[in-house]
Amino acid sequence: MTSGTLRPSPPTPRPAPTAKNPPRRRRRSWRRALRRDWQLYSLAVLPLLFFLVFRYLPMIGNVIAFRRFKPGGSIFGEYWVGLRYFRMFLTDPTFWEVFTNTLVLGTLTLLFCFPLPVVLALLLNEVRAQRLKRFVQSVSYLPHFLSIVIVAAMVMQLVSVDGTVNQLVRGLGGEAVPFLQQPQWFRTIYVSSEVWQTVGWGTILYLAALTTIDENLYEAARIDGANRWRQTWHVTLPGIRPTMVTLLILNIGTFMAVGFEKILLLYNPLTYPTADVISTYLYRMGFESSNFSYAAAIGLFEAVIGLVLVLGANTISRRTVGASLW
């Protein structure tokens, strides 16, 4: 071959993708997905509207925590007062009493209502008699579907002076105890009713998580000589850990709320020292005393604490356990 032989020219290099290309691809992929699955996306319209109207738009009303609000005046308050109402409740001894009650009741509720569904789910998972298993499941989660009003009425009937509990006390030779009039008994009554009402419903979630665990893991554990306790500790609990972490973070998020409806139905002025929590105190300040700006400041304070707890629990869980909500 002579030196004049033509050689194919090298291919022209393509331009490197710029930073603008990925967003365009994302936009195209979103548009394509929206055209393809618009029926599925349309199902999310009503839930999004619900949260927008009943969850996010009412947040605008928090502005009255910083403004003087008078009934009949502007819905955004009459004039700016800054942090006046926050200083009021931070120096109010009653507020710190209800804040302490909220922490105590929230801690007791989390301490009992979070692990008991896990224990019940593990016990039901070991039951081989399907009829007994279904019966226990039905009986345990049935209280979840009862109205808070019905549950509170049942509790009041059970622990009244002539109720079932006091009849048992008299049968054992004791004297009737007015449980709902004594502050030291309120926390026990409230937490017990919460356990009775919520433990079965939480068990359903854990039983569903247990079905996703690979049976080969149990077989391998048995080959290695692990007994039932070791299998539960090393196979079952790690298998449901993501579900446990998710529910724990959600429970921490509602830590400060502490069942407002049930407490409002069960408590009375005699049990305020242990039963009055932030949500009920806020209700009395807002609707009974018509001090809406003060109540809004307390509610905003409670919401900020709940947000900090959720963010903190999610961060700690992600760094220590490796599972989180986001």
Describe this structure in words.
With 326 residues, the chain is mainly alpha-helical. It is 67% helix and 1% strand. The chain is built from 17 helices and 2 strands. Helix 7 packs across helix 10 (183-210) and helix 16 packs antiparallel against helix 17. The protein is globular. Residues 1-6 have low confidence and may be disordered.
Write the layout of secondary structure elements.
Layout lengths: L20 H16 L1 H5 L2 H12 L10 E2 L10 E2 L3 H7 L2 H21 L1 H11 L4 H12 L6 H12 L4 H8 L11 H28 L4 H9 L4 H12 L1 H13 L6 H7 L5 H4 L2 H11 L3 H29 L6
Antiparallel strand pairs: 1-2
Helix pairs in contact: 4-17, 5-10, 6-10, 7-10, 8-14, 13-17, 16-17
Considering the chains and any ligands shown, give keywords for the structure.
two-stranded antiparallel sheet; mainly alpha; disordered N terminus; 17 helices; 326 residues; globular
